[in-house]
């Protein structure tokens, strides 16, 4: 099953499309993105973040030739660890800080420190292309989407459902999206802040940091913000700050909030409309419709007459096949699983929360 997803204004998973194909190959991904383009079109500032899958790279370059394709920073890091056997903490912190850099000066300084640890890692990162993994080099603002964790989380949710027959798999996905849409709409209606949860929290953190800053106005829209010995230039008219965070996150940074407080001005017009509660409500205003009984389905004639042959069977994987029993549809949908305590053996709780005396082992003597 192929999926495409993004993040909504609350910072949660928003599935965009899914499809069941015979295998994950070039033709399947090309067909998937063709259907995706037919449904969503081509919008400004679109981008794709993936695990550098070759089929996805080829498909997007054909269907969306002008859309940038970025790489998940976590998958690049796992490749570095495997290729150069470099997994120590200092290099890890430097790599992720380099990728999240907001300015070129920060980026170059951190890349120099990576070179001091291992020049091969620096060369490897440059070979990939800085525009594919670095936030400051990206041609489209990636904001907080630096990893493909959204897709991985969706795969984890649907892991066991993928073992179901095709009809039950599709029904599982429909009921999953139906439940998510209802729950997220209720949360959106219960949100009374201007921004969604994730971005409102980020704004609150920036507002806390802004209280220790000093502001000196040059014009109505240009301000110098002093943070100890450091100084930053904020231009409210262009929504830019010399720290780089304001324009790349599309959310007021601490320096911008300090300037806005100096002007006694609100922050709303300086936030991306994608982060707002209004946008969140619009996202989930269209419901996932219930499915009637199979006898009442209106199936087009060309679909009913199509003959679907059974799968021919793929290449057998090496090693002994797993004997794990496939879960039923009801088991996958169920939220309650029986858990046996490792301390007393009873069900309904685990060993950590157990208050019963430990179960004694029986010893048989001959």
Layout of secondary structure:
Blueprint lengths: L1 E6 L5 E7 L6 H15 L7 E3 L3 H10 L5 E3 L1 H12 L4 H11 L4 H14 L1 H10 L1 H4 L15 H9 L8 H24 L7 H14 L3 E4 L4 E6 L2 E6 L4 E2 L3 H5 L4 H10 L13 H7 L17 H4 L24 H5 L33
Parallel strand pairs: 3-4
Antiparallel strand pairs: 1-2, 5-6, 6-7, 7-8
Structure description:
Helix 1 (26-40) crosses helix 2, helix 4 runs antiparallel to helix 5 and helix 10 (197-210) crosses helix 12 (254-263). This protein has helices at 26-40, 54-63, 73-84, 89-99, 104-117, 119-128, 130-133, 149-157, 166-189, 197-210, 245-249, 254-263, 277-283, 301-304, 329-333, and strands at residues 2-7, 13-19, 48-50, 69-71, 214-217, 222-227, 230-235, 240-241. The chain is built from 15 helices and 8 strands. The termini are far apart. The longest helix is centred in the middle third of the chain and has 24 residues, at 166-189. The protein is α+β, with helices and mostly antiparallel strands. Strand 3, helix 2 (54-63) and strand 4 form a beta-alpha-beta unit. Helix content is 42%, strand content 10%. 18% of the residues are buried. The chain has a 4-stranded antiparallel beta sheet with strand order 5-6-7-8. The protein has a two-stranded antiparallel ribbon with strand order 1-2.
């Amino acid at each position: 099953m192929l999926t495409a997803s993004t993040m909504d204004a609350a910072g949660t998973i928003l599935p965009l499309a899914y499809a069941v194909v015979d295998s994950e190959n070039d033709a399947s991904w090309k067909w998937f993105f063709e259907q995706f383009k037919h449904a969503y079109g081509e919008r400004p500032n679109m981008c794709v973040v993936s695990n550098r899958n070759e089929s996805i790279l080829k498909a997007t370059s054909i269907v969306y030739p002008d859309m940038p394709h970025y790489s998940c920073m976590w998958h690049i890091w796992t490749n570095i660890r495997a290729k150069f056997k470099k997994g120590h903490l200092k290099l890890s912190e430097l790599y992720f800080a380099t990728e999240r850099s907001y300015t070129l000066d920060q980026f170059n300084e951190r890349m120099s420190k990576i070179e001091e640890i291992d020049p091969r890692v620096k060369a490897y990162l440059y070979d990939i292309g800085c525009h594919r993994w670095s936030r400051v080099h990206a041609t489209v603002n990636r904001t907080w989407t630096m990893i493909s964790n959204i897709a991985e989380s969706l795969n984890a949710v649907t892991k066991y459902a993928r073992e179901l027959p095709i009809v039950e798999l599709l029904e599982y996905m429909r009921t999953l999206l139906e439940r998510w849409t209802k729950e997220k709409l209720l949360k959106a209606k219960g949100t009374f802040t201007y921004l969604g949860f994730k971005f409102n929290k980020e704004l609150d953190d920036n507002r806390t940091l802004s209280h220790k800053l000093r502001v000196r106005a040059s014009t109505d829209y240009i301000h110098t913000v002093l943070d100890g010995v450091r100084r930053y230039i904020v231009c409210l008219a262009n929504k830019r700050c010399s720290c780089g965070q304001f324009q790349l996150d599309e959310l007021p940074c601490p320096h911008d909030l300090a300037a806005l407080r100096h002007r006694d001005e609100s922050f709303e017009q300086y936030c991306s409309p994608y982060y707002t509660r209004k946008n969140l409500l619009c996202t989930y205003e269209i419901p996932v419709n219930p499915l009637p009984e199979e006898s009442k389905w209106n199936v087009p004639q060309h679909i009913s007459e199509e003959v679907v042959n059974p799968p021919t069977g793929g290449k057998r994987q090496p090693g002994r096949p797993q004997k794990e029993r496939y879960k039923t549809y009801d088991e996958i949908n169920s939220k309650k699983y029986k858990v046996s305590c490792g301390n007393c053996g009873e069900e309904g709780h685990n060993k950590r929360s157990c208050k019963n005396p430990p179960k004694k082992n029986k010893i048989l003597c001959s």
